[in-house]
Design brief:
Elements (H helix, E strand, L loop, with lengths): L1 H19 L4 H27 L4
Helix pairs in contact: 1-2
């Protein structure tokens, strides 16, 4: 969970810098990619956790 929060913070910071700084639009794109990858990883972790529950 700490890794998830760290990646979200990094994505937000990169996005803000990409929007504010002139000519650094690529940082916004990198921030969005990091955020999407973070949610994919979170989904994979939650998906694995649900399958282990006994019925």
């Amino acid at each position: 969970m700490a890794l998830f929060l760290l990646l979200v913070i990094v994505a937000i910071v990169l996005g803000i810098i990409g929007v504010v700084a002139k000519g650094l639009f690529y940082l916004l794109v990198i921030g969005v990619v990091v955020l999407v990858a973070d949610f994919v990883l979170l989904g994979l972790r939650l998906g694995r956790r649900r399958r282990r529950l006994p019925r």
